[in-house]
Amino acid sequence: MKSYKIALLAGDGIGPEIMKEAVKILKLVEERNGLQLELMPAAFGASAYFECGDAFPDATKAICDQADAILKGTIGLSHEESKKIPVDKQPERGALLPLRRRYNTYANFRPVFLPKALAHFSPLKPEIIGEGIDLIMVRELVGGLYFGNKEVGINDQGLRYVKETLEYDEAQIRQILHQAFKLAMRRKKVLHNIHKSNVLKSSVLWNEILDEVAVEYPEVEVRHLLVDAAATYLCLNPTQFDVMVMENMFGDILSDQGGGILGSLGLMPSACLGDEKAYYEPSHGSAPDIAGKNIANPYSMIGSVAMMLENSFGMPEEAKNIWSAMQGVFTDGYSTSDLSKPGSDVTMISTAEFGDKVVEKLSKMPKPK
Ligand code: IPM
Ligand code: MG
User: What is the pLDDT of residues 132-156, one digit of tens each?
Assistant: First the structure.
């Protein structure tokens, strides 16, 4: 019997409620596939900080170190609540970035996926969505401005100043580009390279390395696009994209825009892969405004489970089943009120009911061989 250890970092805001639904799915997957899953919950985020003064406590690190994969919920507080925590201990700087750095999860995959049947979630016109949106953003996750040197102080004129540096070396760029080319090979063999080489030297180096790496993937057609133009085309013509690759900050911004064209960040799961360890998380924040109301859609959290099964446990078929079970719940006419407005033509259900319906659908699907 295969057995896996999974660290569960539910986090803050809606994190715990959507994590509960992910656990329902994991229990079913365990049973259907004859696996043994050891689920190891651990404190993470602002909630951990308020418990013990550390958003990423040592006990959590120890659990993550042992885990075969890490499933993370959401972290963060409202702007006002954040002020109760010193800047460097806030969950983003104190937990999430250290998690990414600790396991060198440099490759972040963010699918922006909306089948035609769910086109009504999108703010884009049906003629723009056509047969549906299906692209993946590959974001470098442990370099660039996020992890470069930072300096704050008072300059010679007595003014407060800040200096943050965007740093990459060629090995970092090369490894993420290989990931993107490999993904392109498994998909449509078209790779959009998103950069800003008309201004940034980091993009000039990025593109030089890209030309070198591309030689190893002669079948992949590379299309170059400046990041600002990419933002426009994501709205005007998103179906031209299949795999897009970019550095950390560009990826942060464009992937939220990806959520925007789907209609909600709630539809954005993600995988963060390193060579040794991977973690999986919704691409969105902790939505403190709707936390505890049982209305947040767990799609991004359950989708992250699907990505975990595929990438960490070699179970692509079961992953596919989970995706179609979730889409089936929507096409049956159900939705949660964070995604759909009152009065729209859907039956509104809660977070927990959405999870139950996914369980019901999945349990009726043929088990993977
Ligand atoms: C994301 C988030 C994080 C990021 C925040 C929470 C630090 O926005 O995963 O996209 O900026 O990377
Ligand atoms: Mg972001």
Answer: 999 999 999 999 999 999 999 999 9
Q: State the alpha helices, DSSP H only, in the chain.
A: 15-32, 46-52, 58-66, 79-82, 91, 97-102, 126-129, 170-186, 201-214, 227-236, 248-262, 299-311, 316-331, 351-364
Which backbone phi and psi does 267 adopt, to 5 degrees?
-100, 20
State what percent of residues in the chain have pLDDT above 70: 99
Give the ligand 1 atom nearest the CA of 285.
6
Taking a C-beta distance cutoff of 8 angstroms, is the pair 207, 193 a contact?
yes
DSSP codes, 27-77: HHHHHHTT-EEEEEE---SHHHHHHHS-SS-HHHHHHHHH-SEEEEEE---
Q: Which of 225, 222, 226 is nearest to 184 (CA)?
A: 222
Q: How far is the CA of 333 from the centre of ligand 1 (A)?
A: 31
Task: Map residue 155 onto helix, strand or coil.
Answer: coil
Asked if residues 208 and 234 have their Cβ atoms less than 8 Å apart, the reply is: no
* Residue 96, ligand 1, Cβ within 6 A: yes
Centre of ligand 2 from the C-alpha of residue 249, in Å: 9
The C-alpha atoms of residue 24 and residue 7 are separated, in whole angstroms, by 15
pTM here is 0.97
Which residue's C-alpha comes closest to atom 4 of ligand 1?
Answer: 252
Strands 278-282 and 269-273: antiparallel
CA distance 20 to 298: 9
Question: In angstroms, what is the span from residue 338 Cα to ligand 1's centroid?
Answer: 20
- Could you tell me which of 224, 244, 247, 225 has the C-alpha nearest to residue 133? 244
Pocket lining: 74 vs ligand 1, CB cutoff 6 Å: no
- Tell me, using a 6 A CB cutoff, whether residue 321 lines ligand 1: no
pLDDT digits (tens, 9 = 90+) for 183-195: 999 999 999 999 9
Whether 241 contacts 234, CB under 8 Å: yes
Whether 281 lines ligand 1, by a CB cut-off of 6 Å, is no
Q: Specify whether 332 is catalytic.
A: no
Ligand 1, atom 6, lies closest to the CA of 92
- CB 105 less than 6 A from any atom of ligand 1: no
Cα separation, 217 vs 158, in Å, equals 53
